[in-house]
């Protein structure tokens, strides 16, 4: 089998794919177990991982895997807790549900004696973990907590697996009246010893479990919940202290979360911070600041664009993270600049899921998204900028708005933040903000207005190939005062599920934008056309996956380079890999600096 085939087998199923419900069982007063047959997902599933469950036409939600077997049986436990889950509870055996995954990092099992602490439907991933632990011959004690005994989940399943099970209920209808954390304390006080504790349940319960196990020095792993949209590390909606819960979690070692907001605040769909416990003290929503980072000095790669100095010319693309701490991680991983999520005047939660998936099922590395510009609003974005600035690299604030007046208000707040450049997103193809790109007069008015407010901060204008004449539009922006053009934004698309004959994306219009490998060739062509026509620098984005792509974009005229979709398949390591390969190329071809490559294709 070739490496490509081996990698393909390890890849999650990245497109919502219809599966019939094979079996439905009531598992507690709130929860039903759904059984599917999916060899593709089940064979690769590990305890602690999750799948995205698409209820067509309604929403797509992350659900922990409650069981999976090598012959393709896959079980998920769904609690009737909201509109989407309520509608799923009305489904019958034989109905079609979309699944993609498995996603995330699961539990890793250590030692002979493991204690599992479950709260509510947190028992579901622990059931799969208990099964795996028993297969490995471990002794497992399960402590389960719920409001009442009717809500206790999988107690018999745990017993049948050979686990020792104890329960705690708040109303006393089970064996012990009280909290499951009290059971844990009592168990440890009785002298029971464990090599590891695994926990899943409400955040404050898990926080207490971690306090108890920290004082007893027992290594603990916990499975965390945050807002999941893409599910695979693209959008940053699931941020927790700079970690993407869908990719770096959902299972974390307790120590990893110690210097984060875990147990204090989380994020809304918009990315806005909200408290997880009633705490209205000033500063309750602040991060624990990351330590100051100093980027490496890289003579071959250092670049100056619009008067801003970059230690290297590789940044992330806008939209691959809302949180300042994630942007900070990009810089530590090697990015020479960071670009924020596009931020508007008001908070927006974005479209319902599905918001992001791969266009073809396996390793096409081309994606489609309709996030719908979720963002906390410019006034609340200062908290993120504060965190990101600890990275010590230039910060590019991406903004949007659909009228001169709206953009004026955004710019008036933006100018108060310590930013190095603005990027005006004129080109989100699946929102009504795309109107700006289609109306050169409006774009010109907006850029003049922003220019007058943010001077001397440089402004880049981001365009897409969705307009007939990108170079003409870029020239309009240049004339209005833009200092650079960023190209390209995503390419308009409307993926359909052919069995149901409905759009897959949750955007009510069904439209989204393509990104990734499909953009590599077209992006380079647009950059070449812009370089020919413009006096201002061009910033390249679109299908950059390697140093080869950077060099080709540079030869076509780009001076800075933004990496987006490649972060999904390769992760943060992509920044250092591209830089290493770039340096090797420059040395081998006797260039003294990347700047010498810029525009070579035009000069020849
Ligand atoms: C999940 C996702 C969110 C995005 N959000 C934004 C955004 O907020 N602002 C923006 O200007 N572009 C946004 N984009 C477009 C990217 O910045 C980039 O232009 C596009 O993905 C092409 O680059 P890539 O092929 O490297 O992904 C987003 C793209 C994706 C996939
Ligand atoms: S949901 Fe985790 S990065 Fe998008």
Q: Report the sheet with the most strands, covering strand number, pairing sense and barrel closure.
A: 8 strands, parallel
Instruction: Determine the CATH topology of the domain at 303-603.
Output: TIM Barrel
How much of the sequence lies in strands comes to 25-35%
CATH class of the domain at 303-603: Alpha Beta
Q: What is the count of helical runs?
A: 18
**Ligand set:** flavin mononucleotide, FE2/S2 (inorganic) cluster
CATH homologous superfamily title of the domain at 303-603: Aldolase class I
Instruction: Using the alpha-carbon principal axes, give the shape.
Output: elongated
Radius of gyration from the alpha-carbon trace, in angstroms: 25 Å
Say how many strands there are: 34
Percent helix among the residues? 25-40%
State the separation between the terminal residues, measured CA to CA. Answer: 43 Å
Average residue pLDDT: 95
Assigned CATH architecture of the domain at 303-603: Alpha-Beta Barrel
Short description:
This protein is of the alpha/beta class and 604 residues long.
Main attributes of the structure:
Elongation Factor Tu (Ef-tu), domain 3, alpha/beta, 28% helix, disordered N terminus, 18 helices, 34 strands, binds FE2/S2 (inorganic) cluster, eight-stranded parallel sheet, elongated, binds flavin mononucleotide, TIM Barrel, 604 residues
